[in-house]
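Bug #77: duplicate submission created two jobs. Keeping one. Sequence:
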Amino acid sequence: MQFAAPAELYDRFMGRYTPTLATALSDAAGVTSGLRVCDVGCGPGGLTAEMVSRVGPDHVAAIDPAPQFAAACRERNPGVDVRVGVAEDLPWPDDTFDVTAASLVIGFMSDPDRGVREMARVTRPGGTVAACMWDIASGGMTMLRVFWSAVRTVVPDVTGEAAMAGTTEGDIADRFRRAGLHEVIAGKLTARADYADFDDFWEPFTFEVGPAGRYLQTLTEQQRTAVREACRENLPASGAFSLDARAWYARATIPSA
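Kept job's structure:
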C-alpha cells in the first residue's frame, strides 16, 4: 500500500511515535558506527534520521514507494541515498548492507515474504535484517486500539487492521525463518507519543493517513461523530496526555555462503 497523504500529515498522525520507536528498533538491530545500513519503507525519514545519527549520512540508504515521503526523507536527511521504490524489488545489489531494517512497513507490503527475501538479498552474509510492526491483534498500540474499539461500537463487524502482516506476536519471526534466515530473535519494542488534548488525538484521524483514517472517511457524518465520542470516553477528558504503544519485532542473521 502506498500512502498518499503529505509528509506533514503523517508526522501528526503516526510520526509522533517515530523518535522512540526508531531508537528502539535501531538498538535491537545493532545499528552502530561504521555499518552500512538501509531503511526499507522509510516514510518521511524518522528511522533514517536515527540511523544517520549513528553511522552518518554516507552510510545510510532509504527507500519508499510514496514519492512525497521519499522527497521529505531526502530533504530531512541530506546526503542519504534515498530512492522511490518498493520493498519487494529493492534497487541495490546483493550484499550491499550490514543492517537492513523496516519499521511499521511489513504490514503494508503487497507480498511481505518477498519483501523479507529482498531485504535479506541486499544484506551481506553475517549481516542483520530487522523489522517491527504495531501490536494490533492484542491491542498493544493504544492509539489504534482506542480508535478501532470505538468503531466497533458503531460497526460491530469491522475487521480493522488485525489481519495485516506482522501485527500478531511471532508473525515477523516466522517470516524470517521461512526466508531461511538464521539466529531469529523476536520480542517487543515500546514507543510513546504526547498529545496536547483530545482534539490533538482526534484530528489526525481525519487526514486519511493509513487504514484507520481511510476507513473513517467511508462512514457517514453521524457515524464519524459517534466514533469520535466513543474515543473521547476512553481518553482523558481534558488537558495533555501520553499514550504508549507496543510493536512486535524480529531480527535475524543472514547465513554465511
